[in-house]
Specification:
By secondary structure, the protein is mostly helical. The chain has one domain: Growth Hormone, Chain: A, CATH 1.20.1250. 76% of the residues lie in helices and 4% in strands. It has a 4-stranded antiparallel sheet, with helices on one face. A hairpin with a 7-residue loop joins strand 3 (211-212) and strand 4. The radius of gyration is 21 Å and the shape is globular. The relative contact order is 0.16.
Length: 440
Amino acid sequence: MIYSLNGYGIILAEMGEEHSRNYKWILLALLSATYFLAQGARQIFNAVLPQIKADFAGAGITDTQLGLVGSAFTLVFGLAIPFGGVLADFFSRKWMIVVGTLLFAVGIFSSGLATGVVLLVVAYGVVNAAGQALLPPSNSSLIGQFHVETRATAFSVYQIVFYIGIVVCSCVSGWLSGLGEGGWRRAFFLFGALAAAWAFALAFLLRDTPQVRKQGIGKREERIGNREEDKASVSEALGAFLGKPSALLLMAGLGFYFYAKYGFNTWIINYLQREFPSMTAASASFHGVFWFYLGAIAGVFAGGRVSDRIAVARGRPKARFDVNAVGLVLCVPGLLLSAFAPTAALCIVGTALFGFATGVYDSNIYASLFEVVKPRYRAAAVGVFGCGGSVIGASGPAVLGWMNAHFSMSAGIASLSAFALAGAAAIWIAKVFFFERDKV
């Protein structure tokens, strides 16, 4: 069956109403809500970390051990996401999303039952991470399929909802953790239950959709059916990514970015409470995420619009690489100001600047990758991409915890700027030396 794409939506011949022009926006709303819960639930641990440490104080828990919980999540997520990508390319992306949402819901809810670091690592760092690893390949490949001319804009909306989810979950979790002994557990119970309910809703609201062979403005695209010749082998799917130097360099940039962002996000709330003791748990949770993601929303809007205008309207797709690299360079002043600010107000300004820079980068993470990977292999490519990036960046939270114990958290946060610059360098090398050879 053949269908075509134009600037106003997706027109699918001889298929149901779910593939009308409006469905791409309905789909974006459903996937964005899923991302809201998934990414917001990730932030719960960061928001309640000081209270967890106080609750487990009798067991002699250290900052390094707490950092290992965040690092375990990132590592397991990274190692599991390629399987999510391969499964999404060979099976129903709808059911990958439903199962992933239900699995991470179980992990988040179970985290509230933990009585020590080991159980937190298993529930939050393993079960939660495994469930979340099933989501990005299916989510991003569906958005990439249904949004062509509006791709960066769609991913920007998707990213903004993720930011809002983190702010809401962090603030609610910080408030719950301040209600007394065991308050941090209520946050895990609440969002775990909400995610489980949403998984069942997705089973009814999402539609199975065909995958595509080719994708491009003005080009016809073929539906991939169930015929054997329509299916790519695992080696073919992996080769489509690993054979592109530009994709590998984008992955390296993602890894350096993850190291900086995950390290910062894991410890910023604890850092604010420690450096500025007048802040309550709820206040630190609010300021540690609200201003960061307010800046990120502005950054993702700016990056997405600029990228779409230049890449599509002016026919310069490599501009997406430029936007990624500029975003990482802009991380440096925000990180340094956050690390060495003498007042809470200036620290918050630095946090907002860092957030803006991450938003600029985030707006084109997948849009850049999709310029060098064919549509047929995008879900698998997202899996490998996320795996490599997560493995590279997984040590960030643990290393910052170690630096806090042996040096200072200010030194740890400042050191993140070097990783942001390394990521920008990797992306510019990809653009200058490999883009023309690898582009699709």
